[in-house]
Amino acid sequence: MPRALVTVLALCLSFAFAPVARAQQSDLQSVLQDNQDAVANPSRSTVNEVIDALVASGLPGVAEFLSRWQEREVVVREEDGLFFYVEDDQLIDIATGEAAGPVPDDGIDEVRPNGGVRRELAGALVQFQLSSPDIAERRAALDAISGDMSADQIEPLAASIEDEPSARIAARKQRLLAMLTARFGEDTEARVEAIRQITNGVSVELRGVLNQILTTSDEVSETVPEDVNVARTYVPGEDMSLDAAYSELVERDLAPPRVSDADIYAALTQNIADGAVGGVPVEELSDPARRIDAYEALAAEGTVPGFVGPDDMAAAVDAYSFYAIYDEPDPAVTDAARAALDGVETRVGLSEAADLSLDALSLASIYFLAAIGLAVTFGVMGVINMAHGEFIMMGAYTGYVVQSLVPNYTISIILALPLAFAVTFALGVAMERLVIRWLYHRPLETLLATFGISIALQQLAKNIFGTQARPFTAPDWLAGSMVVSDVISISFVRIAIFVLGLFFLGLLLFILKRTRLGLEVRAVTQNPRMAASMGINSERINMLTFGLGSGIAGIAGVAIGLYAQVTSEMGSNYIVQSFMTVVVGGVGNVWGTLAGATLIGFLQKGIEWFNPSNTLAAQTFMILFIILFIQFRPRGIVALKGRAAGD
Amino acid sequence: MRALPSSVPWFLGILGLVVLAVTVMSEAVGTGLISTSFLKVLGMTLCFCLAALAMDVVWGYCGILSLGHMAFFGLGGYAIGMWLMYARTEIIVAANLAGRAIPPTEAELRDAIGSQIFGVVGASDFPWVWGFAHSLPLQLAMVVVVPGLIALVFGWLAFRSRVTGVYLSILTQAMTLALSLWFFQNDSGLRGNNGLSGLQNIPGFLDAPQAAVALAFFLASALALALGYVFFAWVVSGKMGSVIRAIRDDEARVRFLGYPVEGFKLFVFTLTAIVAGIAGALYYPQAGIINPGEMAPIASIYLAVWVAIGGRGRLYGAVIGAAFVSLVSTWFTGGGAPDIDLGFYRVDWVDWWLVLLGVSFVLVTIFAPKGLGGLVDLWTERRGRDRHGADLGPDQGALREREAGE
Amino acid sequence: MKTTFQTAGAVAALSMGLALPAAAQDAECPIKVGVLHSLSGTMAISETTLKDTILMLVEQQNEAGGLLGCDLEAVVVDPASDWPRFAELARQLLTVDEVDVIFGNWTSVSRKSVLPVIEELNGLLFYPVQYEGEESSKNVFYTGAAPNQQAIPAVDYFLEELGVEKFALLGTDYVYPRTTNNILESYLKDNGIADEDIFVNYTPFGHSDWSTIVSDVIALGEDGSMVGVISTINGDANVGFYTELAAQGVSADDIPVVAFSVGEEELSGLDTSNLEGHLAAWNYFQSADTPENEEFISAWHEFIGDDSRVTNDPMEAHYIGFNMWVNAVEEAGTTDVDAVREAMWGQEFPNLTGGTAVMNPNHHLSKPVLIGEIRADGQFDIISETEEVPGDAWTDYLPESAVLKSDWQELDCGMYNTETETCVQQTSNY
């Protein structure tokens, strides 16, 4: 009984409110319903019609709707195709902003505009957002203008500058206005002045504006017309090859096409008669010269078009001028823009060189960090440790394990660094005690035994952690990058690796040169027997040195895991490079490792710069270079002299 | 002719028996007790044995731990593979072009072959490295010339500047890495990561059943191994063998005695590289495919592992090591070994085989430097002389004494 | 080895592989299904899932009463990501185990390795992974996407929907990216994108130093054009790439990235915050909202005993391939390879994403192409879905291949030159 009553009441209510609801929807909702499909399944090609219809309606909720549509907060109800907002699991009526009942489990689809549509929406929102009280919205509007400039933005932007409360945003608006004026302004002088104003810095935005003003198109005609803004003229044979010039003419139907081998083949096959073409028997046509004979015979008969010889080509090309014209007709503007762009490009070139140097420095510090542990074990102790890469891997996995236990990224990284050191230190000591100790007199076998450990550790890591890459995420304060300009930037992780590398360089130098342990290490390295007679426990020293080298590899693993990926094979990616670094730099010397890492880092980036499309080739050439380098400086860059050189 | 070590007749006898048994059991002869796929595995193992022999000579006898001999093996494989691909494609293309109204020019034929071979990687021009691919004799010469020349140039540079010991090992590893990276690039014109495939189809014998082809290659590999064994036994015996071993044990002393150490090392390095190349040329037509992964540094390290486990410094040791480890490895990774249930954990050998290999390798290095070949000593009752604790010599791995008795 | 010896005797009668392994097996029970996926080595992570998929499908089929009155039996081998071993084991499956069909392979190089063996012994292989095309073998059915079923629609989406004007084609240096990028370059030029507006770069497997390359991509936008990245970057290297993009402050709105090798399996267990909003193109996403998909996912979870395991595109390819094979065998009334192959042409089976997949006479499927946006939870929001696109064995966008076509039904040729009207070769171009 009560339930029935409720139902009746609900019915009455819905009847009572229905006309009201419909009346309210007749504004925004009905405009949307007119374009139902284009709103529910938006596409870049259809969205502009909807936007125009909405803006034309002049309704108050349009800006909010566009913004929410862009943010993907609009849903559509399947049964009737009506649109709603969603807040706190409640459907919100688009027109009234009132709750329209809870979100049902089924029958509601999100409207998902794609990136292209969202950009169009951002463009449409500009006019609403330029003077919005929300600073984030004003920024979004400026970004939208910057991303897609058009002439009709000048007026609203200019109008919004005066009341802009934030000085920074006002300055940005001024600059954008100048850019818009430079591109779309009416008045030559104003445009030249605007170009002068904006020409500082190297931003992508600025280059975009200048390049857009300077777009050209290639033209060909018998004489260069007077009334066009010529960007440059081409002299065939110098600026462009004769072939290219002639093909240009052919494309514009100004000259007959050349006869290609395929044309000859086609012509010959079509004109076979009695086992011969043009008097040449078919079986002789496997000779290219005979094919030409046959074709010329056909040409003489007039059945096929004749050859275009070099002289014909030269004559045809001579008869025409080849030039490029600016799409912008005003030469004063293009001259100003050209001069501005030349200046910008010089600065960009310098910045690119600086950026590349930064990248090289960063790569060098990664190589250094990966190799410095090896510089201790191989360089100082003379032990070849092929499992060094696996220590790096273990360090990275330690970081991963710590992070999966401690959710706070900052704390986990602070914990991971000493822990990785401890784990790999212990492992290194164990390995020295169990294996390497027995093989000090057999260096080649040390190499093989440690390789055995390397494959065993690698497979163990695979068995424990799987073959897939594991995430090891940098905390937020390390996530971004330091941006000097649009060209020069470097990520904070790389800076951190650089700092870490410097730190370990200092630490190692300190330990080796300024502590008792370092003194003993150097003594044991140079002459173990003499050191032993002086009361140095060389076994203990070897153990500690090896542990130290391995521990540093573990920390390097944490750092490398942060910027790249943690996999069981990450160690083997670094092992050969690390040995190269140590050998190139000069064995037995930490400075040598630094020099080696710097050389390899800069060399690799340099080679990449020559051939940016093929990173693999850069690596190949780098290794070849190193092999050659070692032939001529077998002791590396920083070679030890005198007794320290030992052997 | 000087006397060869006593192991030669034994080795040839055992190899002959194995070959005879396998041939009788093969499908081509009719009994079919050994399937064609397993026959191919056996043939390939013999090629590994030949490469291990070469490795043993350069490492076990001359003391150069080369981590690049599998790269030479791969180079030999690529050399023969290029001809196999070219010739097979030529037959197909020529038959197709012959159907056209006008006979093809040589350039057309070449272009068509090119687009067949490189169409997969979106190119059709022949890179310069394929310059000799059309000719079997030239390409067979490449099997020898390319590894030989690379070894000669590399060795000359390295030995000339007196790079020795672990430095040399690392340098050879760098060379291997550079080579495999170069082969990996599609721009190098060797089909990049896909490598050369379909090598088991031998032009001229396209209709021959694979069972027969496999047996032919098995016999050829066995013959090559036998010849290689005799040849290397000859090289390492006699006076030259003494000099080579002397270089291993104390290079400086040999140099002071007036021997051209660099010349000897270069000779051994180049010779073994060539033999490795020949082994590769026999291996890849049986494997059917070669790609740059086969030349990665790790492959060369495995070669050293085989020799070490087999027992270096004795030729049969290398053969035993290569045959044993590669066959056992196939057995384990192929899921042939039964899993061990520990109750709380199930040891699946597919996952744990490499751990076992790594650990046993460490153990062999420390505790049994003579390797599996040392077992033969138990039988022949040859042991090192008791030196009452005195040093064996400058290199504790030196095996001079026992070798002097061979 | 041991098994080889034991069973080798049985093969004796079948000497030299001349007799077709499947020829005399019409009623021989059980029907054997070979599974040739790497269970160890570098490819194990991807391929083990596919092995499990086939085992699940076999189990389901047996529960449903088997096939031709026989039980199905899966024969699983492990080629250990070792390419020559694929050929070896394919030979073993066909001659020693005498399987009736093989489901297997992931990488192109492994497929090229088994092709000669499958063709020599007249076997039947179902290959479930998106690949570079330019191939059509008589004995292989390609249930993954050809470039025109993944790459071309994705580029269309970039051109039409996102208004991208400059393209960076970044890939790992191996055959799939090389061929796909060649096709795309030529397609983009046909669509009026200038040569200098296309930036191509190849990096090694597992590459981690992305800083310079990302800078180069950003620099493409210096003339004010919209830049988009088409990524054929493989595996682990993706982590470093997306991290570097995020570090340099590039969001999916600034420079969208569409990837062809990043799916649910690759994303599972990764920190996806840097990837959110970027795109991927596949023929299947786990998030597809259909009853068939729901059923498939729950069956998968039940079979594997882990509700967190994802499903992905190659799994759907095996699902379609396996069911089509079952139907074809029933239609043919035999497992004989030639009969089954003929019955396969024109087979229809419902996709998990809706619509119907059709096996074309060129041995490629007609499937819809989906574009998804990566969500924070490692799943995809499907934002675009096309009609069924027939897979193209030979691309129309490279001059050498444009003249080629594959039609096993009418022409009995996988490489037919339409210009000269001759069959270039019956075997495939391995």
UniProtKB/TrEMBL annotation, chain B:
InterPro entries assigned:
ABC_transp_permease (IPR001851), ABC_transptr_urea_perm_UrtC (IPR017778), LivM-like (IPR043428)
Q: How does this protein sit in the membrane?
A: Multi-pass membrane protein
Q: Where are the transmembrane segments?
A: 42-62, 69-86, 136-159, 166-184, 211-236, 257-283, 289-308, 315-332, 352-379
Kindly list the places in or outside the cell where this protein is found, as annotated in its UniProt entry. Cell membrane
Offer an example of a GO molecular function term for this protein.
branched-chain amino acid transmembrane transporter activity
What is the official name of this protein in its record? Branched-chain amino acid ABC transporter permease
**NCBIfam families annotated for this entry?**
urea_trans_UrtC
Gene Ontology cellular component annotations, sorted alphabetically: plasma membrane
- PANTHER family the record matches: HIGH-AFFINITY BRANCHED-CHAIN AMINO ACID TRANSPORT SYSTEM PERMEASE (PTHR30482), SLR1201 PROTEIN (PTHR30482:SF4)
- Any Pfam family hit: BPD_transp_2
Assigned keywords, A-Z: Cell membrane, Membrane, Transmembrane, Transmembrane helix
Please list the coiled coil stretches: none
Which residue stretches belong to region Disordered?
Answer: 387-406
Which organism does this sequence originate in?
Roseivivax marinus
TrEMBL record, chain C:
Q: Is Signal a UniProt keyword of this protein? A: yes
Using the record, list the residue span of the signal peptide; answer none if the entry has no such feature: 1-24
> Key word Signal present in the record?
yes
Tell me which UniProt keywords the record has, alphabetically.
Signal
Transmembrane feature ranges: none
**PANTHER family per UniProt:** ALIPHATIC AMIDASE EXPRESSION-REGULATING PROTEIN, PTHR47628
Q: Would you tell me the protein name for this molecule?
A: Branched-chain amino acid ABC transporter substrate-binding protein
Q: What is the lineage of its organism?
A: Bacteria, Pseudomonadati, Pseudomonadota, Alphaproteobacteria, Rhodobacterales
